[in-house]
């Protein structure tokens, strides 16, 4: 069963680790980097996104990231799922501290309940 056959709920993300290299070219383990002050981040590629959540007034709010985006997550996702031999990490969008779309012109901010876009 392929990842495209699954529908994620809420603001869940299927991600894979992006291998990070040191300044000397060594591949660093786990992709986890220290931001200083004991805070770490994990760089990942998004392969699937949830359908958003339904607010109290019945409005579906979508997440900010989409398939193909590169994200920086606080910490490292702990849940994994293997589909067709590929292992994915399951993360919540609340872990995302920054993201980058492959085509910046396609990056769209979704409005929230406050109406701010």
What does this protein look like?
By secondary structure, the chain is mainly beta. The chain has a single domain (3-103), classed as 10 Kd Chaperonin, Protein Cpn10, Chain O. 0% of the residues lie in helices and 44% in strands. It contains no helices and eleven strands. Strands 1, 4, 5, 8, 9, 10 and 11 form a seven-stranded antiparallel sheet that branches. It has a two-stranded antiparallel sheet with strand order 2-3. The chain has a two-stranded antiparallel sheet with strand order 6-7. The protein starts with 11 loop residues before the first strand and ends in a 17-residue tail after the last strand.
Using brief descriptors, characterize the structure shown:
two-stranded antiparallel ribbon, disordered C terminus, globular, 117 residues, 10 Kd Chaperonin, Protein Cpn10, Chain O, 11 strands, mainly beta, 7-stranded antiparallel β-sheet
């Amino acid at each position: 069963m392929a990842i495209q056959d699954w529908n994620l709920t809420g603001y869940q993300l299927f991600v894979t680790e992006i291998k990070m290299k040191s300044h000397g070219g060594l591949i660093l383990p786990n992709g986890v980097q220290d931001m200083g002050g004991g805070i770490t981040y994990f760089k990942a590629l998004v392969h699937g996104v949830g359908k958003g959540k339904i607010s109290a007034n019945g409005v579906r709010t979508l997440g900010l990231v989409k398939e193909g985006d590169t994200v920086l997550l606080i910490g490292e996702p702990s849940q994994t799922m293997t589909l067709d031999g590929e292992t994915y990490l399951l993360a919540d969008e609340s872990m995302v501290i920054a993201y980058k779309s492959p085509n910046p012109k396609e990056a769209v901010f979704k409005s929230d309940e406050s109406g701010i876009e």
